[in-house]
Amino acid sequence: MDHDSTDNSEAPKPGLPQQSSQPDVPPQELAADDIDPATVTAEDEDDARLPEPSEDPHEAVAEGPLAVGHAAIEQAMRLAPTSAGVYRMLNAAHDVLYVGKAKNVRKRLASYARANAIQPARILRMIAATVSVEIVSTPTETEALLLEANLIKQLRPRFNVQLRDDKSFPYILITGDHWAPQILKHRGAQTRPGQYFGPFASAGAVNRTITALQRAFLVRSCTDSFFESRTRPCLLYQIRRCSGPCTSEIDFPGYTELVREAKDFLSGRSRLVKQQLAAEMERASAELEFETAALYRDRLAALSAIQSQQGINPRTVEEADVFAIHQEGGYSCVEVFFFRTGQNWGNRAYFPRAEKSYTPEEVLASFLAQFYDDKPPPKLILLSHQLEEAELLADALSIKAGSKVEVTTPRRGEKRELIAHALTNAREALGRKLADTATQGRLLQSLVTTLGLPHPPKRIEVYDNSHIQGTNAVGAMIVAGPDGFIKNQYRKFNIKSEGLTPGDDYAMMREVLHRRFKRLVSPAPEGDDVKAKPDDDSFPQWPDLVIIDGGRGQLNAVKEIFEGLGLTQVSLMAVAKGPDRDAGRETLFMPGKEALKLEPRDPVLYFIQRLRDEAHRFVIGSHRKLRKKDIREAGLQEIPGIGPARKRALLHHFGTLKEIERASIADLGKVPGVSAESARKIFEFFHAQPR
Fold this sequence. Notes:
By secondary structure, this protein is of the alpha+beta class. It has helices spanning 63-79, 105-113, 121-129, 141-155, 203-217, 224-228, 235-238, 252-266, 270-286, 290-309, 360-371, 390-401, 413-451, 505-521, 552-565, 603-634, 644-654, 657-662, 665-669, 676-687; strands at residues 2-3, 85-90, 96-102, 132-137, 171-175, 183-186, 194-197, 320-328, 331-340, 343-350, 380-383, 406-408, 460-468, 471-481, 484-485, 491-494, 545-549, 571-576, 587-589. It has 20 helices and 19 strands.
């Protein structure tokens, strides 16, 4: 999926004329699609989460089930091939417990089938739960490794190391399908013509880099349709973040040169680009063209800003991914650094799910195979721990990349320093996450004591609605758990009910909750795993606590909905705002209990406020996106009393819809044919506050 950059940058070509008018800025892409609970969404900046605690590794295993498991594996072993392949161990419910690969499948299964063999408790529990084994033969062990990684990501077996919070990384794309190339953020398949630079660790890192690149190289970020419709330069040209190719403020050779410089910088030739800009600055200064020299100075400063934000930039490593793993308290953290064209393009911490008995080497090996299942590997992969199958992994990744990939654990030099730096970050990231989780755990335990819940909630869902006089009505759900907010499970619901009374909050909440829970209470279609497993962190899941924004009336309405759906195991609470909406004076309502007021400085009250405020922030943002889309599509015809004649007069006076939105009531009243009352309606239409 392509994303236009949401940040734009500055600095025009020397000598370009400035416009005195107030032009509009390029429109941003606004997603307003209705997202139902079954639809998966992900936030770019979503924090990685710690996995659920592993089972006790010293847990006793019953003799009977273990014998049954040994018998099932022995039966599969007799028919297993002696060549490479992948095997899946299944339980009585036909759930996949474990996916493994082997150079000789029969020999590997034989190691599980021996009843007197000494095995870790994790393996014994797996064997005890196994009732059948499925086998897929592969031509080589390398292909078995690739298939194993793919199946683990798809099936998420309980006894495998699982890569969680996995998603595609953003790239910078300089397009190649237009005479004036555009710079933008890009995710997904690289099918659009152009040059891709990445991966970057986060969307924020891409946006910051694009902002600085536009200041330095003045490459446009607007869409092609916006570009083609211009009759005058937009605001980005005025603030020196675009060279204005749309209206020929710069000629074709000049713009082509700017694009070439941007590509050179992103391709690792940053020193040469900076030398060229410095030489131009010196030349302009010598010729007493101080304004031109200042522009080159600003462009140099923008490039320096990019490199200063990157931290470590290695001298001897051109293209590499660096992986370091740290284990503590039964959890693992893998820190990943991306280096491309000799530049540090960010880092990210992962917390893979693995039982405590897994060694760092085992976790890292499984993590790497899954990590590159859907990503192109670089030429060099640096690891903090030596892997037993490093050569096999390198061969598999070389097949994926179509070129040689080296996997190594450096012992000295700059590469070893990069590993040490990554290890420090992994240790600190895990320490922060454990501390945050402990704090969150204490809050959840306090919630149990304060509200009388049966147990600390693992999943809290908070619901809120937003609309303006019933228009663009949208509901939203945010999710929190032991690790904080789970942003990749947030959902919005565009209200669809026909005949719904505008502003009927009860009816809106009824629709949202019905759509949220109907999939959980409905029987699952055969072969469709609708109900989540207890240890599965995918969506949907049953919440332990549902919080709604409202008072006793909203609580009773939601209680009726839950009773109608047969939801009896979910705790329910409503949070009513205090007088004058004062924070700290909220009243809490729960079914069958007296209303509860907590002390203003009570940590539990602060925690509930955070949940409520996050839901409000998310639903207001969703409403505004929906409303802006309507305004963009329907324009001024959405405003009561504004017909074609007044619309033409407004556009003729202000030039663009954006400028009409920015205008004051007094400015609107100066337009011919617009009365004071009409001016007030127009102003209130654009500035009405959703609720």
